[in-house]
């Protein structure tokens, strides 16, 4: 695909972005420029007027769509470009930009703001190239309550031009990322039954008891899920002591130690347990092994909440084994009385490497009746492994504190493919996309499905995209809800 033309309505904007094409001020000149320019991708960069009160002089607005009398032009790559701009340290807003054929005065600004638009300009809709990648970035000069014709406009204009100059590397990254792509989706991906159950529990608790409902730690490790539940009235706390006496408290999906349960009882809290049943299984195993006098090797990461809760079942008898090196040196008071369990969200091959060392060193090592690693974790890893070598880059959708999402990155890397973890489409680094014509896409078990769809939509804004799905297996497991929310 040919590089994007950076269209700048004013000469001074052209100087600010160190190049580009001067297209002229206003709809008539913009339409004339669009007619003579070659077809292809275009990025409109310049100063503009703010509409929303939170959009201030010097801020950048990246259009998610451009509205005009002749119709609306969608801009699906907006979140990707906005993310690149934010990584440059710029203040960025995303939302609709309105194209106007006249200077918009204060009363009209208010009316436009009520439609949800963030900024207004006089060129963008007329510069769009039909069927081609398109982007609009406006540095705000005049805002609500601060009209264009005022003494401060000159200073604001200089600030806006400096922001455009600072944004130039992002414009280049957007242009270099333009190309046709094939996206290969690993399936299963995204929510598992335990995550769906945990989220459902919090939502039902809010419906039943009203806000606030308190949740100890993050219900699942995903920032988008937590934010949405906060908007509904969930309050996330670090410890039981942070919850008012007598309030409703939900234990997160990763499980808690018996000490936490006792603390909640002392405070008279109405507890609803959202612990994943597969995590509960590991807790039961630890109690069973320690109850018969075994030292329990817990294969997992000591800092993870699931491991903290599991260790709490028998802190004097559990030894966390985080890697093969530890497995080769770990000891037990009685080498004949040992067992192991696993954190449910580990990479299967990594966990098995550790377990094999333990089995070799302790021939009598007791093992779980069934694998501890969650079926969903295993399925997502195997599904990704099946496609990783067929693509140039793997995008794993998930939050940075999600263990199973981070393990997916490691799985792809062990297959020899570059992989990155992205919390959403705004985290996709455009520079990584420049040489990637085939993208593998998956999501951790705690990542909502809509985030995957948004990544695909963002990629489609950079050029034609074909999407294929590689389905390894169907997941039909469901878990019952606790009686407290039924």
TrEMBL record:
Keywords: 4Fe-4S, Iron, Iron-sulfur, Isoprene biosynthesis, Metal-binding, Oxidoreductase. Its cofactor is [4Fe-4S] cluster. It catalyses: isopentenyl diphosphate + 2 oxidized [2Fe-2S]-[ferredoxin] + H2O = (2E)-4-hydroxy-3-methylbut-2-enyl diphosphate + 2 reduced [2Fe-2S]-[ferredoxin] + 2 H(+); dimethylallyl diphosphate + 2 oxidized [2Fe-2S]-[ferredoxin] + H2O = (2E)-4-hydroxy-3-methylbut-2-enyl diphosphate + 2 reduced [2Fe-2S]-[ferredoxin] + 2 H(+). Pfam families: LYTB (PF02401), PNP_UDP_1 (PF01048). Residues 22-127 form the Nucleoside phosphorylase domain. The active site is at residue 306. The keyword Ubl conjugation does not apply. Dimethylallyl diphosphate binds at residues 221, 254, 304, 402-404, 446. Its EC number is 1.17.7.4. Binds 1 [4Fe-4S] cluster per subunit. Isopentenyl diphosphate binds at residues 221, 254, 304, 402-404, 446. Pathway: Isoprenoid biosynthesis; dimethylallyl diphosphate biosynthesis; dimethylallyl diphosphate from (2E)-4-hydroxy-3-methylbutenyl diphosphate: step 1/1; Isoprenoid biosynthesis; isopentenyl diphosphate biosynthesis via DXP pathway; isopentenyl diphosphate from 1-deoxy-D-xylulose 5-phosphate: step 6/6. Transmembrane segments: none annotated. It comes from the Bacteria. The keyword Transcription regulation does not apply. [4Fe-4S] cluster binds at residues 192, 276, 374. It is an enzyme of class 1 (oxidoreductase). Signal peptide: none annotated. (2E)-4-hydroxy-3-methylbut-2-enyl diphosphate binds at residues 221, 254, 304, 344, 402-404, 446. InterPro entries: LytB/IspH (IPR003451), Nucleoside_phosphorylase_d (IPR000845), Nucleoside_phosphorylase_sf (IPR035994). Catalyzes the conversion of 1-hydroxy-2-methyl-2-(E)-butenyl 4-diphosphate (HMBPP) into a mixture of isopentenyl diphosphate (IPP) and dimethylallyl diphosphate (DMAPP). Acts in the terminal step of the DOXP/MEP pathway for isoprenoid precursor biosynthesis. Belongs to the IspH family. This is 4-hydroxy-3-methylbut-2-enyl diphosphate reductase.
């Amino acid at each position: 695909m040919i590089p994007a033309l950076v269209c700048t309505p004013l000469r001074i904007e052209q100087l600010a972005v160190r190049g580009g094409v001067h297209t002229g001020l206003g709809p008539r000149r913009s339409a004339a420029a669009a007619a003579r320019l070659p077809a292809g991708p275009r990025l409109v960069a310049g100063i503009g007027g703010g509409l929303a009160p939170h959009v201030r002089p010097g801020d950048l607005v990246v259009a998610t769509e451009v509205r005009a009398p002749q119709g609306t032009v969608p801009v699906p790559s907006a979140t990707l470009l906005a993310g690149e701009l934010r990584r440059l340290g710029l203040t960025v807003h995303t939302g609709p930009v309105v194209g106007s054929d006249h200077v918009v005065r204060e009363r009209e600004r208010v009316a436009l703001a009520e439609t949800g638009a963030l900024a207004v300009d006089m060129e963008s809709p007329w510069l769009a190239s039909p069927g081609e990648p398109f982007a609009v970035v406006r540095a705000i000069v005049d805002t609500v309550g601060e009209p264009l014709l005022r003494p401060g406009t000159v200073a604001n204009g200089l600030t806006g031009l400096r922001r455009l100059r600072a944004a130039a590397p992002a414009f280049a990254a957007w242009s270099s990322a333009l190309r046709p792509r094939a996206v290969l989706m690993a399936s299963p991906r995204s929510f598992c039954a335990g995550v769906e159950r945990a989220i459902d529990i919090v939502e039902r608790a809010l419906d039943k008891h009203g806000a606030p409902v308190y949740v100890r730690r993050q219900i699942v490790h995903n920032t988008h899920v937590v934010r949405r539940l906060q908007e509904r009235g969930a309050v996330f706390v670090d410890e039981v002591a942070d919850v008012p006496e007598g309030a409703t408290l939900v234990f997160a999906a990763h499980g808690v130690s018996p000490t936490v349960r006792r603390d909640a009882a002392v405070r008279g809290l109405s507890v609803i347990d959202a612990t994943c049943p597969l995590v509960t299984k590991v807790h039961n195993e630890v109690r069973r092994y320690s109850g018969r006098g075994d030292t329990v090797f817990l294969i997992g990461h000591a800092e993870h909440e699931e491991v903290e809760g599991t260790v709490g079942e028998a802190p004097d008898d559990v030894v966390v084994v985080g890697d093969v090196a530890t497995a080769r040196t770990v000891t037990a008071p009685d080498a004949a009385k040992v067992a192991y369990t696993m954190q449910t969200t580990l990479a299967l091959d990594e966990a098995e490497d550790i377990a094999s060392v333990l089995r070799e060193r302790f021939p009598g090592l007791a093992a779980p009746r069934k694998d501890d690693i969650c079926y969903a974790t295993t399925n997502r890893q195997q599904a990704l492994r099946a496609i990783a070598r067929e693509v140039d880059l793997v995008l794993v959708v998930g939050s940075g504190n999600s263990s199973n999402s981070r393990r997916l990155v490691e799985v792809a890397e062990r297959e020899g493919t570059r992989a990155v973890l992205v919390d959403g489409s705004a985290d996709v680094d455009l520079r990584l996309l420049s040489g990637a014509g085939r993208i593998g896409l998956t999501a951790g078990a705690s990542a909502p499905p809509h985030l995957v769809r948004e990544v695909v939509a963002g990629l489609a804004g950079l050029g034609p995209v074909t999407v294929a799905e590689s389905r390894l297996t169907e997941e039909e497991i469901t878990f019952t809800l606790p009686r407290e929310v039924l």
